[in-house]
């Protein structure tokens, strides 16, 4: 991207708990890691999509759900890569501005030369975050849908065995996408980019503009959507994990007792004890996918709690440097959540593993 503009330094904003240099180093480090994780996620999810299509995903509701989850994860990783790039550009500007301010303080001269991007990187990052949240919410909803449906199948197999159908999955996924887009659309339409004067660099460039009502909309989404969805997902998947563990333990205990006694208790109407090896692998697969989500979602809950306690923990507040670093951490963990599922599928989905192995052998 072309660099331009001669600048005059202005007073820097309050640093809060994080100095400008520490803030810059933290952003570069976090976004370098995120860029690597994003590339891994792009590769793994492309593989997932190819394998699930080869497995005739549109003939089976569960496989189709996993395919759509991989598509959503691919979009998450793609947007995360763009956020990493914009954050890197922002950190470079911060580094340059810090150096200019330092030189001005050392020499007593208020004017110096510097180069800045013609489009404010913050705008690119904000648009990226809105897009990221759309697909990340789809990933969360699909994960909950799959986990809850499989839990119902395990608890009440005869009643809910065919709950995840192809038609129902397509309908639910369409609802998830429309809902996620509709939720973020007000924020997207209440901000944009315009040619404006930037006092930080004493020059004109394409800069973020924000509608006066945007903060109200953002706070409403935070209170009524982001926080409840994150907390609800954490609780729902935690309950599903507890149920899955109990079912697996009950099945293991039953097989152990039956083997020791050399006698199968066919008169017991306990569906949990009739768990097949295939069902056990599916439960382990969903257990790991849900566990990864819960681990990666925990920093988001801590950030929500901190923001609720400390009003200055926000953009424009005293602790905005720490807040922006925290946001980078959240995006990093969400990207990790969308990048690791291929390894779970490989070890706990026999059909996925065999299809991937066959394709790998044929390509040699």
UniProtKB/TrEMBL annotation:
Pfam families referenced in this protein's UniProt entry, alphabetically: 7tm_1
Residue span(s) of domain G-protein coupled receptors family 1 profile: 44-345
Record keywords, A-Z: Membrane, Receptor, Transmembrane, Transmembrane helix
GO cellular component terms given for this protein: membrane
Subcellular locations according to the entry: Membrane
GO molecular function: G protein-coupled receptor activity
Transmembrane segments: 32-53, 65-89, 134-158, 170-189, 231-248, 286-309, 321-348
Keyword Transcription belongs to the record: no
SUPFAM superfamilies for this protein: Family A G protein-coupled receptor-like
PANTHER family in the cross-refs: FMRFAMIDE RECEPTOR-RELATED (PTHR46641), G-PROTEIN COUPLED RECEPTORS FAMILY 1 PROFILE DOMAIN-CONTAINING PROTEIN (PTHR46641:SF18)
UniProt-recorded name of the protein: Chemosensory receptor c
Organism annotation: Plakobranchus ocellatus
